[in-house]
Amino acid sequence: MVSVSVIAMAVGTGTAAVLIAPVALGAMGFGAAGVAAGSTAAGMMSSAAVANGGGVAAGSLVAALQSAGLTGVATAVVGSVGAAAGGVVGWVSSKFRG
């Protein structure tokens, strides 16, 4: 049986991911106005464009991050990632508790 503390950790990790994602994307340079010049996002986009012959491939990591930055992060996607991360944290912590 899963303890209350493991469930709380999983929920907390998922919630943190949803709250932190927009801040992290903005700090990287992915924003509502597009990619910020001179940012980490600009470097990623430039590298992706060079690797793909001049354009960023649809569905690539850079395209997904830009889409998330433009839309303010799709809550369902971030929530899913957060829930998965929370599940992993809960599972790992249960292994250390014995």
Describe it for me?
With 98 residues, the protein is mostly helical. α1 crosses α4. The protein has one domain. The protein has helices spanning 4-28, 40-51, 61-71, 75-97, and strands spanning 30-31, 34-35. A two-stranded antiparallel sheet has the order 1-2. The longest helix is centred in the N-terminal third of the chain and has 25 residues, at 4-28. The two termini are 12 Å apart. The chain is 72% helix and 4% strand. It is elongated. The chain is built from four helices and two strands. Belongs to the IFI6/IFI27 family. Keywords: Membrane, Transmembrane, Transmembrane helix. It is a multi-pass membrane protein. This is Interferon alpha-inducible protein 27-like protein 2A. InterPro entries: IFI6/IFI27-like, IFI6/IFI27-like_sf.
